[in-house]
From TrEMBL:
It comes from Volvox africanus. Residues 646-659 have a biased composition (Gly residues). Gene3D superfamilies: 1.20.1280.50, Hemimethylated DNA-binding domain. Residues 242-289, 379-400, 631-659, 744-766 are annotated as: Disordered. This is Hemimethylated DNA-binding domain-containing protein. Residues 248-263 have a biased composition (Pro residues). Residues 264-277, 744-755 have a biased composition (Low complexity). Pfam families: Transglut_core2, YccV-like. Residues 573-807 form the Hemimethylated DNA-binding domain. NCBIfam families: yccV.
Length: 857
């Protein structure tokens, strides 16, 4: 018999290239050791692997990419990804969290791909799996993967820290170099929006702005409007504020010459200055952004050939919505506040080559744009275009060919002369003079944006976003000492010891850098000492005060760290374990237990107000549980239905279950530490005195869980400022009922090609629980608690499981709680515990989650 074995050298070179590029990194290294030919072919594959896996990175990798060392580049970037995954594993541990976040922030763009990949994988898991007959997979039929809540939560935390640092760096750069911001005034606003949407891809905003600029150039060319004329301004106003047209899209103009671009917030790398025809290899993070034509933009199609976008000022009852300050939301909702609309107006004008002098004027309570034309309009088309041309001669010393005009962006883009503007402001109760007409610098524009957001978050009690805008505002503010004081107090309320220490260090440095002045001769002049400098005695006092604050901060941090690692062994009197889903006996809301106390640990005033001593089952001496309330049990976003708070805010002791309802603890804050948050906000005020990207191939991490799109009138992005309210309550054991998901009954027979679902769950373990005196509430098989902070405590939950899986930190703190359900459900049919989908839980122990495999194959 002839031998069928052949030599691999006979294979075509093109076939070997096609084969090698599909090998894993480990197999590719082994293949390179076979022969010289294969070693040479594998070197060509490393470049494709790098370009497929990473889309972001610092400029320090440029030398390796230009020299062709793609294998070494892959090795070093892979090691960075391993360090990123190790830091993500440390985030749930309170003691390690500070160092892990510092590691991720220091990695910068090198960690961005891995974080985006982990967030995308977590967001895509938990979806319904199709039967093998439809997918060709060997996964069990009709079974969903677990919700990786912990992975999703902590990757969002890491992305938020990374985006915040990028935004602070970019805002600081734009403030120090205003010439760059003059060309791209929207860059700072997009950085602020990216910090609020850390997991979103906002590159579509720049494409839409570029398309609007191309449309402006086309309309100016068609109508023969010279740049810098009032006619060009009216064309711009009609494009942005005119009514929309349901017409066919306009013809695509010749693409404009690409203007200098800044690094977007999603990628802080600089575009390569070399031409595309350069023979040297270009790394993915060195490639310039792809220029798209106006025909591919949604907003230009919406405007039509002669229509507009219909931008307008927001309604009065929606004025304090944070979305009105986000440039991406302004484009998608077509409404905003004056400063965001004025900034959008300015950005399109600069990109489209409007000409003239267009600048933002910051009036009290209102922002308008001032335009000074430099070119006269053609004959017969003069005039300012204002509501009345009779006032054109009274422009108050306007310069240029036609004098100055003001654009009321909040009023639909109307052109006003100076007397008309004064009259309009007087009608609003704000008299203005010529001295108020001061153009805002880029730093002042961004500071005003952040100040508006600060007022919104302070009134809403949103402490995380309040701390965010304080740090962003500190990057552009001229006097940042008051901002540091506010940020320090907010960080204390959030127990962010690292940020509080940074604030103290910055305040100490500012005190040391303040100029020394001689002491004032009288106390009346001492008030202005702090503004111009300080004497030696005042500096010594402030330095000593900073030292005392630092010692107090270190003591509080040590106490918090020691208390967070103390193990709690559950006694027999505590019937419910951490991670169990419960329902309130009287008020009916549902939630999940995250902590327990053997007796009530609240203060005496709360106990008296809630009538805890009158509760059956032992009063204050019975166990109490901290419960995260499910958002699905609320009918609205302003406090929930009557079954949620139960009227417990009245403090009546006649209803003993009022303490379990925790109605007095419900508030609009995202955190349960409502009292400390309100106190910190009050102290801060007093101290102040004043989406997966389609262009990325492969399963690796250069993708975003969310992608912005201009379609629709509301932004569907999930950000830090629009997350659901996080409600937490303190429940007595007598009012706790255990929620048990049960297997759904089959409603109709499945086709013969489908495999039947798992058999119904055995009820014997639950009968044993009922025998222990626990009241069970049977719920559908796929019931889950909906709360934004579940990932802080739990790794996730398998469909049909009666409890959430604790993360490593909670398993260490509650060793007995994570073992209870394994013992209770041992041998139950239809339930396989942790081994049901081991790969999904071990999301950091390999690349299975990257390959899209959720179930065991």
């Amino acid at each position: 018999m002839e031998s069928t074995e052949g030599s691999a050298d006979c294979l075509p070179i093109d076939f070997l290239r096609l084969l090698f590029v599909r090998l894993s990194a480990r197999d590719l290294c082994a293949t390179a050791c076979t022969c010289r030919l294969w070693d040479q072919l594998t070197r060509e594959c490393w470049r494709a692997k790098v370009q497929r896996r990473w889309r972001h990175g610092d400029a320090k990798w440029r030398s390796l990419s230009q020299s062709g060392e793609w294998k070494q580049l892959y090795r070093e970037r892979h090691m960075r990804d391993c360090a990123t995954r190790a830091a993500l594993q440390d985030l749930p541990w309170p003691v390690r969290r500070e160092a892990a976040l510092a590691t991720l922030v220091a990695a910068g763009d090198d960690a961005l791909d891995e974080l985006l990949g982990a967030a995308t994988a977590a967001a895509s898991q938990g979806k319904t799996m199709q039967p093998p007959a439809l997918t060709g997979s060997d996964c069990n039929p009709l079974r969903r993967g677990p919700r990786l809540l912990g992975q999703q939560y902590w990757t969002e935390v890491a992305l938020a820290a990374l985006r915040k640092r990028e935004a602070v760096t970019l805002l600081h750069k734009l403030t120090k170099d205003p010439r760059v911001a003059e060309e791209r005034p929207d860059a700072g606003a997009l950085a602020i929006a990216q910090a609020h949407y850390p997991g979103a891809d906002l590159r579509g905003v720049e494409r839409e702005l570029a398309a609007l600029a191309s449309e402006l150039q086309r309309r100016m060319q068609v109508e023969g409007a010279p740049a810098g004329s009032l006619r060009a301004l009216r064309i711009l106003n009609h494009l942005l504020f005119g009514p929309t047209q349901s017409a066919s899209p306009p013809p695509s103009p010749s693409p404009p010459s690409p203007s200098p671009t800044l690094p977007s917030p999603s990628s802080s790398s600089s575009p390569s200055s070399s031409s595309p025809s350069s023979p040297s290899p270009v790394a993915p993070w060195e490639r310039p952004p792809v220029q798209q034509s106006a025909a591919a933009a949604v907003l230009v199609k919406l405007a039509g050939a002669d229509g507009g976008l219909g931008l307008r000022g927001c309604e009065a009852d929606d004025y304090y919505n944070p979305a009105n300050s986000m440039l991406c939301d302004v484009l998608s909702r077509r409404c905003g506040i004056p400063i965001s609309l004025a900034l959008l107006h300015l950005a399109v004008a600069r990109r489209g080559g409007l000409g003239g002098r267009l600048e933002l004027i910051g009036l009290p309570t209102r922002v308008v744009n001032r335009f000074v034309p430099i070119v006269k309009d053609p004959e017969g088309e003069g005039g300012s275009g204002c509501e009345s041309d009779a006032d054109q001669s009274n422009t108050g010393g306007g310069t240029g060919a036609g004098g100055e005009v003001f654009v009321d962006v909040f009023g639909g883009g109307k052109l006003l002369s100076w007397p008309q503007l004064r009259s309009k402001m007087a009608g609003l109760g704000v008299p203005v003079q010529r001295c108020h007409l001061r153009a805002l610098s880029p730093g002042q524009i961004y500071e005003r944006l952040c100040t508006n957001l600060y007022s919104i978050y302070r009134n809403a009690g949103d402490m995380p976003c309040l701390r965010l805008v304080l740090e962003l505002c500190g990057a552009v503010a001229e006097q940042s000492r008051d901002l540091l004081i506010r940020r320090y107090r907010v960080s204390l309320s959030l127990e962010d010891w690292s940020d509080a220490a940074d604030c103290l260090d910055a305040m100490t440095a500012s005190i040391a850098a303040a100029p020394l002045v001689p002491p004032p001769p009288d106390t009346a002049a001492a008030a202005g000492t702090a503004a111009s400098g300080m004497d030696e005695h005042l500096r010594h006092q402030l330095t000593a005060h900073m030292s005392r604050l630092r010692r107090d901060l270190d003591d509080r941090r040590s106490t918090w760290q020691s208390s967070s690692v103390i193990q709690k062994h559950r006694p027999p009197s505590v019937l419910f374990s951490v991670g169990s889903m419960i329902q309130h006996r009287k008020y009916g809301y549902r939630g999940v237990i995250v902590d327990w106390d053997t007796c009530c640990r609240m203060d005496e005033s709360w106990i008296k107000q809630m009538g805890v001593d009158s509760l059956p089952g032992g009063g204050r001496q019975q166990p109490f549980y901290r419960v995260l309330v499910s958002d699905r049990t609320r009918s609205n976003g302003n406090g929930g239905n009557s079954n949620t708070n139960g009227g417990a805010g009245s403090g009546s002791s006649g209803s003993g279950a009022a303490a379990a309802g925790g109605g007095a603890n419900f508030n609009d804050s995202y955190f349960s530490r409502s009292n400390s948050a309100a106190d910190a906000d009050a102290m801060a005020t007093t101290a102040a005195g004043a989406g997966v990207a389609a262009e990325v191939p492969g399963p690796y991490g250069a993708t975003c869980p969310q992608k912005w799109g201009p379609e629709g009138f509301e932004s569907q992005l999930r950000g830090l400022h629009n997350r659901p309210r996080a409600e937490e309550t303190y429940v007595a054991q007598v009012n706790v009922q255990l929620v048990v998901p049960m297997q759904q009954q089959q409603q109709q027979p499945l086709p013969d090609t489908m495999v039947l679902p798992p058999p119904p769950r055995n009820t014997k373990p639950y009968e044993r629980l009922e025998a222990r005196g626990l009241t069970l509430v049977r719920m559908p098989y796929d019931f889950e608690v909906d709360h934004p902070d579940l990932g802080y405590y739990f790794e996730g939950k398998m469909p049909g499981a009666p409890h959430y899986r604790l993360n490593a930190a909670l398993r260490h703190r509650f060793p007995a709680d994570c073992e209870e359900w394994d013992a209770e459900l041992a041998g139950a049919a239809g339930y396989s515990g942790e081994g049901e989908c081991a790969e999904a839980w071990d999301w950091q122990g390999g690349d299975k989650w990257r390959e899209g495999r959720v179930c065991r194959t």
